[in-house]
Amino acid sequence: MQPRIQLSPPHIGVLERQFLLEALASNWVAPVGPDLDAFEQAVGDRVGRRRAVGLSSGTASLHLALQVLGVGPGDTVLVPSFTFAAPANAVTYVGARPVFVDSHPSTWTLDPALVADELDRGARTGRLPAAVLAVDIYGQCCDYGPLLAACARHGVPLVEDAAEALGATYQGKEAGSFGVVSTLSFNGNKIITTSGGGMLLTDDDRLADEVRHLATQAREPAPYYEHRVIGYNYRLSNLLAALGRAQLVALDDRVKSRRDVNRVYRGLLGRQPGLRVMPVAEYGEPNAWLTCVVVGPAEFGASRDDILRQLAAQDIESRPVWKPMHQQPVFAGSTMVGGSVCEDLFRHGLCLPSGSSLSESDQARVVQTVLSTPRRRTSS
Question: Where in the chain is the domain with CATH 3.90.1150.10?
Fold first, then answer.
């Protein structure tokens, strides 16, 4: 029996153990402490943001980002349909309604032209969305130039969800540095992890202070517990921040490793008829968090699901790409702008094992398993 190959497992080294033991020895394990302060400072410095607030998850970060921007009941927020559920869920947490927007076929990220058209339409009808929530997909940044220009033209704030993209760049600027507010995730499958956790980043002191206040149960500075607004238990613990500090030291190495894996798949699978690796946008460098391929069943001779089953039979974890939000039962009846691009990606797209600890032999095993998928004969 060969060991199981996971999709994107945590990559933990010696430094993580050292930092965690030091944090335990200091007895700073609650949601305050020197490691949390240092982690926030280090991530802010890396991304290029003045302020950073460590939180319990990327989803919590999105929730508070929308809340402090004043998004609420009766509002709409433009959200990509091709994404994990967290951005759309966060919109509902504040009582607003997501309006889903299709992806651009050459980047798989939010289509700037569709966003601009929807903002122009909202301006004409007097019903502009309260925000645009742009999601960096599979480690590739959105095309922020036209997105920011469209938002600025209409005075609509942009939130960058960089949960999957830490270490990526757009025109030389770091993922997480765009929009009024940006968010990160340090979930166990991300490029660096705190086991569970996230961070909100901004250059606006007022927004950062409000987020920090709300994330600590909105406790007022009194000698007793006093609360004037509803708060949340959303702060990242000092212990997990110690893990994050150690992980951040290795970020560039983790990015390099995932890009190397992507390069192998691109070279050995991307040239096969009927297999197309996710395109790399000309405007930046992705972190290659996950390498995804689109399967053309007629050309390849097997479907995406055939490959999924073949990989599973060899104890190799893979999964379909994100199911569009407008096709999710919980968002049935939601407004969708476009849709054909992300629907086609979901129908044929596949995420391959992409962890930064994936060995060369395991990469070869994945490639060989994909290529050994039984093919149907095609007529000449």
Answer: 252-371
Model confidence pLDDT, tens digit, residues 194-246: 999 999 999 999 999 999 999 999 999 999 999 999 999 999 999 999 999 99
**pLDDT for the residue 378:** 52
DSSP state of 119: H
Please state whether beta strands 349-352 and 291-295 pair in parallel, antiparallel, or not at all (unpaired).
antiparallel
Residue with tokens 């044929």: 348
Q: Which helix (H) or strand (E) holds 136?
A: none
Residue 233 three-state SS: strand
Lookup result for tokens 């700073």: 28
Cβ neighbors of 302 (< 8 A, separation 6 or more) are: 295, 310, 373, 374, 375, 376
Domain 14-250 has CATH 3.40.640.10: yes
- CATH 3.40.640.10 in the chain: give the residue spans: 14-250
At residue 130, the 3 state secondary structure works out as: coil
Q: At what angle do helices 238-249 and 251-268 cross, to 10 degrees?
A: 60
Q: Which of 172, 208, 167 is nearest to 186 (CA)?
A: 167
pTM of the shown model: 0.96
Tell me how far apart the alpha carbons of residues 337 and 339 are, in angstroms, rounded to a whole number: 6
Question: For residue range 121-145, what is the model confidence (pLDDT) as tens digits?
Answer: 999 999 999 999 999 999 999 999 9
CA distances to 98, 100, 209, 225, 236 from 32, in Å: 34, 37, 15, 17, 8
Q: What architecture does CATH give domain 252-371?
A: Alpha-Beta Complex (3.90)
Q: Where are the alpha helices (DSSP H) in the chain?
A: 14-26, 34-47, 58-68, 86-93, 112-125, 144-154, 205-215, 238-249, 251-268, 297-300, 304-313, 340-348, 360-371
pLDDT (0 to 100) of residue 44: 98
Token pair, residue 171, equals 């025109």
9-66 pLDDT per residue, tens = 999 999 999 999 999 999 998 888 999 999 999 999 999 999 999 999 999 999 999 9
Helix (H, G, I), strand (E, B) or coil at 349: strand
